[in-house]
From TrEMBL, chain A:
TM stretches of this protein: 20-42, 54-81, 93-115, 127-147, 159-179, 199-221
Organism name: Thioclava sediminum
InterPro entries: Cyt_c_assembly (IPR002541), Cyt_c_biogenesis_CcmC (IPR003557), Cyt_c_biogenesis_CcsA/CcmC (IPR045062)
Function of the molecule: Required for the export of heme to the periplasm for the biogenesis of c-type cytochromes.
Domain of life: Bacteria
Gene that specifies this protein: ccmC
Family note: Belongs to the CcmC/CycZ/HelC family.
Keywords: Cell inner membrane, Cell membrane, Cytochrome c-type biogenesis, Membrane, Transmembrane, Transmembrane helix, Transport
Bilayer disposition of the protein: Multi-pass membrane protein
UniProt keyword Transmembrane present: yes
Main subcellular location of this protein, as a coarse class: membrane
Domain Cytochrome c assembly protein per the UniProt entry, residue ranges: 5-183
Subcellular location(s) of the protein: Cell inner membrane; Membrane
Protein name: Heme exporter protein C
From TrEMBL, chain B:
PANTHER family according to UniProt: ABC TRANSPORTER I FAMILY MEMBER 1
Source species of the chain: Thioclava sediminum
Pfam families tied to this protein: ABC_tran (PF00005)
Example of a GO MF term: ATP binding
Keywords: ATP-binding, Cytochrome c-type biogenesis, Membrane, Nucleotide-binding, Translocase, Transport
InterPro entries in the cross-refs: AAA+_ATPase, ABC_transporter-like_ATP-bd, ABC_transporter-like_CS, ABC_transptr_haem_export_CcmA, P-loop_NTPase
SMART domains in the record: AAA
Domain ABC transporter: 4-210
Keyword Transport: yes
Name listed for the protein in its UniProt record: Heme ABC exporter, ATP-binding protein CcmA
Automatic annotation (TrEMBL), chain C:
NCBIfam families per record: ccmB (TIGR01190)
Cellular location(s): Cell inner membrane
Coiled-coil region: none
Protein name, per record: Heme exporter protein B
Pfam family, one: CcmB
Transmembrane segments: 12-37, 43-64, 96-119, 125-150, 157-178, 190-213
Taxonomic lineage from the root: Bacteria, Pseudomonadati, Pseudomonadota, Alphaproteobacteria, Rhodobacterales
Length: 242, 210, 218
């Protein structure tokens, strides 16, 4: 028994068939409890006001936005090295979710930023690097869509995710340097985790777990769709051969 | 002596196996003509032999740096002259002397003409001259006589014969008769890949999904 | 290798090679910006480094799809891959040829066009330095994008979408270098970062480009 056995599409479909309902269930429970707790049972913070509640969506979404790219890099590497199809398809399935997570983080950030800083958008290094990350997601998705042969597409997007990951990190540091260079001392701290009280922290943790399971459920469903699409293609090819 | 030998080769196109169980060998001084209907996998086979794509199974053995590949298109740059086009490939293959090739392909009078002003037959002759300047013994040619008239086909056959006489070998995929009567002919149709149910090879690309 | 460089340069300057197109585009960008933001010298002087950098970047982008597409269409890319030269070297030489025909003219023209945008006196030399250090990275990254899209029929737009995010770090440090240089501030950090990014890009990205070409020809 090795873990690579689950990379076989048929085995993967069988296993996920059993796992998927549980994942969906856990995702639903943690998300609902976390969000309801965060939105209705947490006292309003003195210096933040009601708008602080957006962190229960904003922080988990931002966390996922970055980690989904990391996951895509890992699955792409597995594909490039070991040629497991499910791995490549999982990366493909994760990309649109990552893009949406980035978008959610950007939009909720704007919604939060408006009452806090009086502006919808600030060229803060963090905001900027998320915008760039969003562009990387778009490019990745577009490349998958543009290449016809699924094997070629998996290889090319794999290389893109690796090089793109490096440049996304590089952009983050470049943006840090760039804004600091212009507005010395006027940076707006967004590190809310550091001075957050337990009352806010626990529901936030729950929401983060909820987002992780939500992502897992989505990526499983989407990967299963991709596997089915490939199976369909394989059957059609088989018919053409006969 | 065998220059190129192929054992149990299987090749795929777009993830689908097209040819399998293919074995043949090519000796110095001989030519092998590959025949078969459209889509049987002649181009795929030649691209695999040239190292442009990996083989599904089987082995290809030949001396290192011994093959020159020529595809449907000649890879000519239309704004460069005949001499510049040829000189470029000569320096890529580090052979550098293009005069014999120009002479043998009867291109001397055209050497300062830009490639776009050549006729189809002249272009093909330039493509063959490129093969000559590579200095490689094994020629792998994909439809070399497309768009050639009878006289040019004869010239082509003459060039191949000259190459064979110098101890070279040629592997040619073609639809039409080249007039190379001494060449062996290999029909690829019997090697068409079968489905696994019919006893074809397992583990081809998309099988994992079934 | 040198033969390949000479061939690409020759092709670029012959009819239809597109040499000078990037430069003309650069001039158009520089001409259009004052129409957009108004003719005030002070504003123009402030935004000049950024405009020149963004203009150079877009001009660079313009000719990227030619790097491999033409060789792919006429079959010479197949022949180059089967030729006894390392593909990584071919890719690097192609990037170099692109830089000489596109990047280098931009470096030379930027200070001249800077006059049109009231680029501050002290900034001209920094403009040249920053472009000289930064544009090679633009060409190499562009080659990577071109390699990814070489087999696609309408790859041009996708190429821009793929490549532009990669240009962000170079753009940031390049423009910052000019700004700091113009204001007489410490230029060491952006200078080193810009040079570092270019050096790492030139050294490593050709491997990714070569891999992408091999995949695309398969």
């Amino acid at each position: 028994m090795s873990i690579w056995e689950y990379a076989n599409p048929v085995k993967f479909m069988k296993t996920t068939d059993k796992i998927l309902p549980w994942t969906v269930g856990v995702a639903a429970i943690t998300l609902i409890v976390g969000l309801v707790w965060g939105y209705f049972f947490v006292p309003a913070a003195e210096n933040f006001g009601g708008s602080v509640k957006v962190i229960y969506v904003h922080v988990p979404a931002a966390m996922m936005a970055i980690n989904i790219w990391v996951m895509m890099v890992v699955t792409s590497l597995i594909w490039l090295i070991r040629r497991h199809h499910v791995s490549a398809l999982a990366a493909k399935a994760a990309a649109p979710i990552g893009a949406v997570m980035t978008l959610i983080a950007l939009i909720t950030g704007a919604v939060w930023g408006q009452p806090m800083w009086g502006t919808w958008w600030e060229w803060d290094p963090r905001l900027t690097s998320f915008l760039i990350l969003f562009l990387f997601y778009l490019g990745y998705i577009a490349l998958w869509a543009a290449v016809e042969n699924p094997d070629t597409a998996a290889d090319l997007t794999g290389v893109l995710s690796l090089v793109g990951g490096v440049f996304a990190v590089l952009s983050r540091y470049a943006a840090n340097f760039w804004n600091q260079g212009l507005h010395q001392g006027a940076t707006l701290s967004m590190d809310s985790e550091q001075h957050i009280a337990d009352v806010y922290w626990f529901p936030l943790l729950l929401c983060m777990a909820g987002f992780i399971f939500f992502f897992l459920a989505l990526v499983l469903i989407r990967t299963r769709t991709e596997v089915r699409a490939r199976r369909l293609g394989a059957i059609q090819q088989r018919e053409r051969m006969a | 002596m065998s220059m190129l030998s192929v054992e149990g080769l299987a090749v795929s196109r777009g993830g689908l196996p097209v040819l399998e169980g293919l074995s043949f060998s090519l000796d110095a001084g001989h030519a092998l003509v590959l025949r078969g209907p459209n889509g049987v996998g002649k181009t795929t086979l030649l691209r695999t032999l040239a190292g442009l794509q990996p083989a599904l199974a089987g082995t290809v053995s030949m001396p290192p740096e011994s093959m020159a590949y020529a595809a449907h298109s000649d890879g000519l740059k239309s704004t460069l002259t005949v001499r510049e086009n040829l000189g470029f490939w000569a320096s890529v293959y580090a052979t550098n002397d293009i005069e014999p090739a120009l002479k043998r392909m009867n291109l001397q009078s055209l050497e300062t003409r830009p490639a776009h002003s050549l006729s189809a037959g002249q272009k093909r002759r330039l493509g063959l001259a490129r093969l000559l300047v590579t200095g490689r013994p094994i020629w792998v040619l994909d439809e070399p006589t497309v768009s050639l008239d009878t006289a040019s086909v004869a010239l082509f056959a003459e060039a191949v014969r000259g190459h064979l006489a110098n101890g070279g070998a040629a592997l040619i995929a073609t639809h039409i008769d080249l007039g190379l009567n001494e060449a062996k002919v290999l029909d690829l149709t019997p090697f068409k890949a079968k489905t696994p149910e019919e006893g074809g090879m397992q583990g081809a690309f998309d099988e994992a999904f079934l | 290798m040198i033969a390949l460089l000479m061939r690409d340069l020759r092709l670029a300057v012959r009819a239809g090679g597109g040499f000078g197109l990037g430069l003309a585009f650069f001039l158009i960008v520089v001409t259009l910006v004052p129409f957009g933001v108004g003719p005030e010298g002070k504003i123009l002087a402030r935004i000049a480094p950024g405009i020149l950098w963004v203009g150079a970047l877009l001009a660079c982008l313009l000719s990227l799809d030619r790097i491999f597409a033409l060789d792919y269409e006429d079959g010479s890319l197949d022949l180059l891959v089967t030729a006894p030269v390392p593909l990584e070297g071919v890719v690097s030489i192609k990037a170099l040829a692109h830089w000489i025909t596109t990047g280098l003219p931009l470096v030379v023209a930027a200070p001249v066009f800077g006059i049109l945008l009231h680029l501050p006196q002290g900034a001209h030399v920094w403009m040249v330095i920053s472009l000289l250090l930064g544009t090679p990275a633009l060409s190499v990254l562009g080659t990577f994008g071109a390699a990814l899209t070489v087999g696609l029929k309408r790859g041009g737009l996708l190429l821009s979408l793929l490549v532009l995010p990669f240009y962000v770090p170079t753009l940031i440090f390049g423009a910052e270098l000019v700004r700091r240089g113009a204001e007489g501030m410490n230029t060491e950090t952006p200078l080193l970062m810009l040079a570092g990014i270019t050096a790492a890009t030139v050294a490593l990205v050709p491997f990714a480009s070569a891999a992408a070409i091999r995949v695309n020809l398969r």
